[in-house]
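Regression report. Comparing outputs from two consecutive submissions.

Submission 1:
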Amino acid sequence: MTVPAPTLPLQVALVEDDLPLRDATMQALTLEGAEVTAFPDARAALGWLTADYPGVVVSDVRMPGMDGIAFFAQLRAIDPDLPVILVTGHGDIAMAVEAMKNGAADFLTKPYASADLIRALRAAATRRALALENRMLREEAGRGVRGAIPGTSPVAERLRSVIEGVARSEIDVVLTGPHGTGKSHAARAIHDLGPRRGRPFVAVDAGVLAHEDAELLLFGRDPAPKSTGGSVGLSRTGLIERANGGTLFLDEIAAASEALTARLLALIETRQVFPLGAASPRRLNLRIIIARLGDEDARDPLWRRLGAVQVAFPPLGERREDLPEIFRLFVARHARALDLPAPLIGEAAWRHVQTHDWPGNLHELSGYARAFVLGLADTGTPLAGSLTGERSLQQIVADFERAVLEDGLRACGGDVARLQEALKTPRKTIYDKLAKYDIRPRNFR
């Protein structure tokens, strides 16, 4: 089977201590259109290579200082997916075979033909390109779900894990929780991370469901036949049909009337839409996501008929650990939208964020962040609302301390030594606090 060549120029990091052989190999690879960076020893190469290097490493086994096998082990620590081709003498074949078992891309014995090296390089480069592409897709997916459910608390981690799991399937989903807890963002993330991400995502909110023309907006209308005197110019594709092949998101379904609820029930059970004036129904291919408050009465049978996975979203007050990250995210978003510099978050603002109950959940916190960016936030009474909940002084202080540590790590790029200096606190105390709050410095690098 012929391995397709990568579309970008072949990139090679060549590690060879023999100068004549290094120059000859560079010349042969350059003539094949490769971009070659050569190094006389493993140490020099390690100082240059990174986990996102898009090419292939070619290394001799026998080298002074660090040999090729030890070099390969170091590269595996940098990036296990980085392809390494080892060049060996006859006495090194056993070592090379062992390295192949541990993940080396290939090995060649001296003397080797340039064509054999090029063939091995192209195969390894193709695998490298696929590995980096898959990594990028995973990172984008991770950013998508983390943007929908920010935070580091166990609750946030669980929600992200559940959303990633249900997104990969075609199953319908019911999202429950109070207003402003992130259900609409989660619905979009489920669509974007799932197999229908290239298809339409249509959101239907309470404003549409409660509208006097809700049935027309949702189900559309077919033109009356000319034989009946109708006009062919009155057709309208409904929102439900526009979601065909993709995802239909019904938000705040309790706002629908009884008559509309009955039609939506029929849609859920049959996956057919019957536009006004149509002669027959049309079958649709839909994934349905429903958001509900969780306290609707028996007049809300839609979610029970859906047979879907249910995901519960807790109020923001139960995610205190996530407040600093979410607030920073909102401040950055509003500053960008308003074309203003993001202001420094001072002690008074942090106290307010950590002590307020946020009954309006994410909506209220976002509104406060916008006011903060505009310089209109009132932090003069930072303990307002804090005494109406069940949080002790110890918990309030702990939440504030966690926020200070996370903010400091972010400012120091995850460098604990710099954080220790900035906070003027013994290193052991810093590490004890980081362990207490399960804060990992590497997440801030």
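Submission 2:
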Amino acid sequence: MGATALCVLIGVVVGGCAQQNGIALARQACNHVNQSIALYENFQTRPASANAARERARAAAELLVAAPLAAEAASDSAQWQALMTTLSESGRVPESRLVHALTAQCASAVHPDLAPPANPSPPSSPAPPST
């Protein structure tokens, strides 16, 4: 009985550490995402400036740095899979199409208590048809 309780306790502690590690990794990824978005918005306001191309490249580089951090966070907690998936699209999809999703996903890294559950429960029975 004591060994079983010890195993359960170890599992809870390790699980809690993994979740905390996932949050820390997601926050690191989101720091890079936020830097990327700031650079992106800066070159969008001045697209003809001499620095625009360099800022665009730096913005893309920040997303590349964020991607593996988000992947590691997602391996610790399914909560971060959307962030990982969105970042994985950054090489194929213009950043303008990702900004909204990345902003929302990173908001949950800053305030994890506001994040949706990792495995949302399916909806209950469908509503009866109206007559």
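Expected: both submissions complete independently.
Actual: both completed, but the second showed a warning that disappeared on reload.
Relevant detail on submission 2: Helices lie at 2-45, 52-76, 81-88, 99-110.
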